[in-house]
Design goal:
This protein has helices spanning about 20-25, 30-35, 40-55, 105-120, 135-145; strands at about 5, 10-15, 65-70, 75-85, 85-95, 125-130, 145-155, 155-165. The protein is α+β, with helices and mostly antiparallel strands and about 170 residues long. An 8-stranded mixed sheet has the order 1-2-3-4-5-6-8-7, sandwiched between helices.
Length: about 170
């Protein structure tokens, strides 16, 4: 199912093949990747190309681009994906260009993606994790309606863990 959501400030939509370099370049900024898993450009390229294939296959869970509604500038990306081995949970993730931090865009996007996730899947819960030091993203998730729970360990790293259940959507 193609995703296209427009707000007064931005559009969330599927990536186009010609946007690969925009996507990859986002992860060249050390401020953006400080709290993200470290990946090479080749790994980012593979992620982008898998995203395009998943779009073509009509997958509901995927990665999408966020574009400025005024000038079409690439603002960042967001994703919904299965959360590890938990079949009833979906994970929300995102990354924004530094110039778009602190403007409420991430919180607005998160609320939209939560609604999309609950509308288009049977998931009982949508979750998100951040590094313990990523206070900015933790504030975003709280503003978007998620509740902070006990920390979660992924690949040996302790992460802040947030959740919203279908029974209390926004």
């Amino acid at each position: 199912m193609p995703l296209f959501i427009q707000t007064p400030r931005f559009v969330i939509r599927e990536f186009k093949p010609e946007e690969e370099e925009f996507y990859i370049a986002l992860y060249d900024d050390e401020r953006v990747i400080v709290h993200l898993p470290k990946r090479t450009r080749a790994e980012q390229t593979e992620i982008f190309r898998t995203t395009l294939a998943d779009n073509a296959a009509g997958k509901v869970l995927n990665r999408w681009g966020i574009f400025n509604n005024g000038d079409g500038d690439y603002m960042g990306s967001c994703l919904l994906r299965a959360f590890h081995d938990f079949k009833d949970k979906i994970e929300l993730g995102y990354s924004l260009h530094y110039k778009y931090w602190g403007k409420g865009i991430a919180s607005e996007m998160a609320r939209i993606m939560i609604a999309y996730g609950f509308t288009n899947t049977d998931a009982a819960e949508i979750v998100a994790v951040t590094t313990l030091e990523n206070i900015g993203s933790q504030k975003v998730l709280l503003k978007a309606g998620l509740e902070q729970l006990d920390n979660f360990k992924r690949d040996g790293e302790e992460l802040a863990y947030f959740s919203i259940k279908r029974s209390n959507p926004l």
